[in-house]
Design brief:
The protein is mainly alpha-helical. The protein has helices at residues 16-24, 32-42, 57-68, 85-98, 115-123, 133-139, and strands at 78-81, 106-109, 128-131.
Amino acid sequence: MESDTLITFEELGLGKTVLEAVNNMGFEELTPIQAETIPLSLEGQDVIGQAQTGTGKTAAYGIPLVQRLDPSQGHVQALVITPTRELAMQVAEELNRIGQFKRVRTLPVYGGQDINRQIRALAKGQHIVVGTPGRLLDHL
C-alpha cells in the first residue's frame, strides 16, 4: 500500500468514538508506519512494523486494536507484551487515551507493583492487558 494513499484518520473508516479520541489526541495525518499498518490491521491481517522512536508505532497498532474490541465484553481481548515497566505504563496510557470514548479499559501489569491490586483490577474486567514478561508469568 502506498503510504500517501491515506492522508487523514477520517479516511480509515474508524468508529465515531475512536476517531473522536484520535482527534482529541491531536493526530491529524498518518505517519508512514500508521499508513502502512492501520488499514491492514483493521482488516484483521497480522502486521510487523519497524520505525524510529516517536513515529507513532503505539497508535499504529493501538488504533486498530481498540477499533476491533467489543467493550460490552467484560474480559481481556488483547495482550501487549513490553520489555520494561516504563514501556508498559507508556503503552497502557496511550491505549487508554485511544479507547477513552469507547470505554475500553487497559491495565498495565509489571513488577514492583502490588500483584494483589493487579488481580483485583483484572477481576473487575479489563479489555487490554499490557505487561512485562515476568509479571505476566506471575499472573499465569
